[in-house]
Amino acid sequence: xxxxxxxxxxxxxxxxxxxxxxxxxxxxxxxxxxxxxxxxxxxxxxxxxxxxxxxxxxxxxxxxxxxxxxxxxxxxx
Length: 77
What we know:
By secondary structure, this protein is α+β, with helices and mostly antiparallel strands. The protein has one domain: Macrophage Migration Inhibitory Factor, CATH 3.30.429.10. The chain has helices spanning 14-32, 51-61, and strands at 3-9, 40-46. The radius of gyration is 14 Å and the shape is globular.
């Protein structure tokens, strides 16, 4: 605990993903007091053309009660 899943457009390098995982780990340690050994971070690459159907609709629009930082875009506008 905790386990974080980051979904993002595909195309980032392995180095960028490693850097992101390290920064997320640091943030969790700072904000929650978690130990590094208790944290896991997964990254899911999503093709841009699939974002609305595979991420926005089910995860953002479909579960608004779970969203603590809302996006500043609406793919339907």
